[in-house]
Amino acid sequence: MMVFTALLGFSGIMLNSRPFLAVYTFLLWVCLGLMVSPGYIAYKQRTFNLEGKINLQWSRLLGTEGRLRIQDAVGPPFADESAMLIIVAMLWLHFSLYRSIHLATLLFQVQLAWM
Known about the structure:
Blueprint: H1 2-15, H2 18-48, H3 50-61, H4 64-74, H5 81-114
Helix pairs in contact: 1-2
């Protein structure tokens, strides 16, 4: 992206073309944003450190009553019905696969006994 912007700017200067230079100016701003954004994201993450603050509050500042109050307010981890339906479907599939494999082995044993 930056190489293309540099080539566009160079050709705009050599050809003395205002439309090329206008696009070049816009692309310079885009390149500046692309260069600055990773640094800003890292700065913001380190400055605010929300995960560390929550961990500190959970481990040191809250007692057992506070933790229990938060856990009761949040509810069980699988409170969502769609997640429960998926888990039930996976268990049913696993059980039916187990039954079919068990039935196939029994039939194979019966077939061997007939021989």
